[in-house]
Amino acid sequence: MSAAQTSPTVSEEDRLRADLYNFLGLILSAPPDEFLLAQTAGLSGDDTELGQAITRLAGCAATTTPQQAEREFNKLFIGLGRGELLPYASFYLTGFLHEKPLAVLRSDLAARRIERAPNVYEPEDNIATLMEVMGGLIVGRFSTPSSLEDQKLFFNRHIAPWAGHFYADLETATSAMLYSAVGSVGKAFMQIERDAFRLTPA
User: Fold this and answer.
1) Between the N and C ends of the chain, which has fewer C-beta atoms within 10 Å?
2) Cβ count within 10 A of residue 35
3) CB 24 within 8 A of CB 131
4) Is 90 within 8 Å of 101 (Cβ atoms)?
5) What is the number of other CB atoms lying within 10 angstroms of the CB of residue 5?
6) What is the CATH architecture assignment of 12-198?
7) C-alpha distances in angstroms, 134 versus 76, 100, 172, 192?
8) Residue 1's pLDDT is what?
9) Comparing C-alpha atoms, which of 200, 147, 150, 139 is closest to residue 9?
10) Is the separation of the CB atoms in 184 and 53 below 8 Å?
């Protein structure tokens, strides 16, 4: 996705939210290299559900090589013909790819003047792109930081209906070890975001 400068007016809490969205987008877009695995291994969590999931992810990253991560990623998301999981909103919501959820998302992205990068060929409703877009909306990567109301609208329309289900599937996927922990982090984070947006005035 094309990007502008990050606004300096974003709160520390929102920067941390955006960082986690961006991390999930990054690790779900391609197999992690040695640098990202090392960074992930250095994370530490607290006693919350999300914190415990982060601690587990750090431990998995510490014992995973880039080659193992690539094999796991390919089994999960690419495979022979298709991977174990299809990480697309259209598939989770309709059972088919390139359906109405993708068309609605493209319309919303166009309204926000967010364009797909020239070298990206994945449909925009894949989980990695949606995580990246949400992180960008929070910190103003595409223009100015989105209001909490606009973040809530985007989240409820494009992420909340299916992302928690996807992350739960990833957590228990047969081929997943490192990505099982990614699923745990994503599932806990989506629940936190869902609960927080419920408290936001309509």
Assistant:
1) C
2) 9
3) yes
4) yes
5) 9
6) Orthogonal Bundle (1.10)
7) 23, 20, 25, 14
8) 57
9) 139
10) yes
Can you spell out the DSSP letters for 127-141? HHHHHHHHHHHHHTS
Count the neighbouring beta carbons within 10 Å of the beta carbon of residue 171. Answer: 19
Q: pTM value? A: 0.93
The domain ranges of the chain are 12-198
Alpha helices in the chain (DSSP H): 12-29, 34-41, 49-62, 66-77, 89-94, 100-111, 127-139, 148-154, 163-171, 178-198
What lies within 8 Å, CB to CB, of 74 at 6+ separation is: 31, 83
Q: What string of pLDDT tens digits covers the 202 residues of the chain?
A: 544 444 458 999 999 999 999 999 999 999 999 999 999 999 999 999 999 999 999 999 999 999 999 999 999 999 877 899 999 999 999 999 999 999 999 999 999 999 888 887 889 999 999 999 999 999 999 989 999 999 999 999 999 999 999 999 999 999 999 999 999 999 999 999 999 999 987 6
Tell me the residue type at 154: F
> Which of 80, 83, 103 lies closest to 169, judged by CA?
83
Structure tokens, 92 = 């989770």
